[in-house]
Amino acid sequence: MTNAVPPRQDPEQPWRSEGAPPPRPPRRPRRGIGVWGGMIVAALAVFLITDLLLSVFGGSSTRSVPYTEFSKELSAGNVTKIYAKGDAIQGELRKPARVPGGSGTYREFSTLRPSFADDPVWSELTKHDVTVTAEPVVQQRSFLANLLISLAPMLVLVALWVLIARRMSGALSGGLGGLGRKAPPKPVVPGEDSKRTTFEDVAGIDEVEAELSEVVDFLKRPDAYRRLGARMPRGVLLSGPPGTGKTLLARAVAGEADVPFFSASASEFIEMIVGVGAGRVRELFAEARKDAPSIIFIDEIDTIGRARGSGGGLGGHDEREQTLNQILTEMDGFSGSEGVVVIAATNRADVLDPALTRPGRFDRTVSVSPPDRGGREAILRIHTREVPLAPDVDLARVARTTPGMTGAELANLTNEAALLAVKRDRDDVGPGELSDALEKVQLGAERPLVMPEEERRRTAYHESGHALLGMLQPGADPVRKVTIVPRGRALGVTLSTPDADRYAYTEPYLRGRVIGALGGMAAEQTVFGVVTTGAESDLEQVTNIVRGMVGRWGMSERIGRLTALPQDAQQAYGLSAAPATLDAVDAEMRRIVDECYEEAGRLLTAHRPQLDALAEALLERETLDESEAYRTAGIPRLTKPEG
After folding, report:
1. Which of 44, 226, 254, 529 has the most CB atoms around it within 10 Å of its CB?
2. Catalytic residue among 463, 524, 588, 599
3. 63-133, what's its fold?
């Protein structure tokens, strides 16, 4: 029994074992002036050669002579025939005559009769029996000249075809004859072109870092895993809402592993010409293999990776499917020893094709969620490293007032606060700048709008209705701020955020949100007896909540515990509800909204003095913070949420 000898590693390329096929030599850059330049050069060459040959072999022996010389020969009876057109005369002599003032003789001649000549040319012609033809002479070309003129277009077409054929043979990977080709993708090498990104620049998603740290260890110590028979994951899919840091995570993995990073957006592969996207995918993976170990990052992969047959995505249907098939083929070609890991990001993992997410292609799917309160505080500390903060700034308090915000939104919040500090000529960023920046991000920028007093009063009651119902509903999110200062598209805003992050919602809580959202419309109906267009965004929020309650979350006894309103990916596989079920969903949605609207009107009528007090305070001060709003309404602040 013999022991198997492990393959010897190439010291210069540790990822390539002895016996493996040699690396593909680098492609030499193409030289030349391109297809159009070659066409122009070929056409010019053909025309120049044709003109030269015509001038040498196809020239005429006709001699141009003065009109006096013609008259002299005519009087001497030496002209046998002429061809005339207007004042131009061409003809032939009976006997060759000597060239006037020069050497040699001529027989065929041409001349031009002056307009002021009054000699009897016709009499002389008839007197000497000259054959007269009143037609122009067609110049006779030689056989060689006619042959060249006939072949010139054919020569140009042949030259064009040869150039295109050579172009296609050398650039099939780039689409139709290289059309649509771009420069070969270049990797981002940590520490060269930009600042190196590591896990120290990522916060709030520790569980995701733990998943990706194994990929980093694979790239750093491949031999340790290979000894135990473990193979490197071919692909990692990062799924999460926009702004949660998926691209930053991919860069951090490359920075921690100290490997080249190839970044591309999936929309870059979609072209009008079928086959161009697939060619770019091949080129991207080929370049990554050359620089292995390396990482390929494909952002927004749902652009080309949607479930086939759904008809979604950008670009032509055939082009998108060919590009997706090429990605699947390239990932199937990984043997685990190349040292290339594909990381993709998407906001819609539910619409991806099952062939893309199966094990062996994207082996891991990592969910990247918005950070919790501790994560938000850590993210704020990262984004304020280079921002001078006032001593009284409490980032933990800022993190408590920003539930649901992603890392990108927190970075924007920090930047807006710094911009406000510059405008106010401050040397640091204080709590006031952070608070005002949060209002600008959450509520929108203030608008200098002067409203009529009647409309301003209706807006005050509208926002007071939202705020009062938010205070009265058990377990509702606390009211943080109420204002009738126009911000963004809204004439007024009521801001309510939870004390702690919520990850699941009960039916009473959702009904309370619906009642609070309908409070503005109910207040206008109760006080003024009218309904205005100011409730548009409220009704959109109500519709989304109730649609989820009835159609997706099983909170209706009539519909039952099923998903009647499937998501896009489920619709692609024909999992849509029957028309009768959809009619029942609409009826249930209307019933719940009507019940909540009646409850909102009843509560506002029962607490009319508090509604009036809030409206008058808003008309006087325009903005009420949390403590002022609860004190004005005379309602104690409940700190223990229900449900």
Report:
1. 254
2. 463
3. 3.30.720
